Structure formats: C-alpha cells, structure tokens
Amino acid sequence: MDFVSALSQASLVLVFAAAIVGKIRNTASFLAFKQAVATLGPVPAARAGVLAAGVVIAEAMTVLLLADPWPHGDRLPAVIGLLTAIGLLASFTYAIAHALRTGIQVGCRCFGTSASPVGPPQLIRNSVLLVLAVVAIPGAGESGHLSWQARFAGWLCGATAALVLVVGDELVALLRSAPPRTSI
Asked: Are 159 and 14 in contact (CB under 8 A)?
C-alpha cells in the first residue's frame, strides 16, 4: 500500500502544482480563473477574487503537505493534505456537475489555459483524482519506508499519470477536432 500511496500522492502533488502555476503564471490567467469562479459559483464579483485566491492557497497547502514524507513517520500532514485534496476535488466536481446540469457555459480554467467549456472530461479527471486521494489515505506518510528505487518508481508512475490528467483536456479536444479520414 505504501507504493500505491506514494504514486497517488505524487500524482496529486504534480496535478495541483500544475494547476497553481497555470492560474498564477500571469495576471490574465488569474483574472480568467477568477471569472470562471464567479460564473461557476455563483459568487458575487466582489468575492470571486477572494475565493479564487483561497483556492490557489488551498492547492498550494495540499502540494506542501503531500510533497515529501514527514520526519518520524508522522502521518498527520499527509492525511491533512489528502483530506484537503478530497475537499477541493469534491467542490470542483460539484461546481462542474452543477454547470452541466444548469447549462452554464464556462471555460475550464483548472490549469489556467483551456478555454473549452467544462464537461464530462473534467468530471472524469476529477473522479480519477478523487480515487487517487482516497486510495492514498491508508499509506499516507508511510512512503518514507520505501527504498529510494520504489519511491522513484512511485514518483515516475505518478508523474506519468499527472501528465495524462493535466493535458487530458487538450488530448480530448485534439481528438474531437481531427478531420475525418478519407479513403483513396
């Protein structure tokens, strides 16, 4: 279970880190995220900035708590990080499901770049991330007992999963926009 937890935590760290960088890489990215928060909320425009900043801070807290095993086998920081991730992902999933149910068209600014409207791909991504967070809880904080090779393999597998999850929107858009093949 330690390896699965290490893999899951690595995926979550890298996905949330990509989300943070995408949202705060420049003013336009943060303003676009703030607008998405106001639309998905629905949150008054005056409070959307505070909520958007709170989301980025919570994501950063999650990354810091999950990034490295804590000394003396202390599981509490990792468990808090995983519970924070679960809370964030559940909130994101609810907001997307609400938008789909009510017909709200808003760009997914999860990673700051995609302007394509939220939809089933984001629900699937968030569901996968929720499963990773839940599966990681039993081994949280125990990955320090793994050999360096096992930890490296866990982070490598986690990085691969994170890459697919982060660029999944673009992959889906690319596959949807591919022109039909013609036979010669």
From this structure: yes
What DSSP state is assigned to residue 50?
A: H
**CA gap 136, 133 in Å, rounded:** 5
Q: What is the pLDDT of residues 26-72, one digit of tens each?
A: 998 899 889 888 888 778 888 999 999 999 999 999 999 988 766 66
Answer for the pair 75, 25: CB distance below 8 angstroms, yes or no. Answer: no
- Can you give 119-133 as a three-state secondary structure string? CHHHHHHHHHHHHHH
Whole-angstrom Cα distance, residue 181 to residue 184? 10
CA dihedral 148, 69, 78, 114 (to 10 degrees): -70
- The neighbouring-strand residues paired with 117 are 107
Close Cβ partners of 38 (under 8 Å, ≥ 6 residues apart) = 44, 45, 48
Spatial CA neighbour of 30 closest among 58, 52, 1: 52
Taking the whole predicted model, whether its pTM rises above 0.70 is answered as yes
Task: Tell me the H-state helices in the chain.
Answer: 2-24, 27-40, 45-66, 76-102, 120-136, 148-166, 168-177
Give the Cα separation of 78 and 82 in Å (integer).
6
Are the beta carbons of 130 and 93 closer than 8 angstroms?
Answer: yes
Dihedral sign, Cα of residue 149, residue 153, residue 154, residue 159 = positive
Provide the residue type at 158 as one letter: G
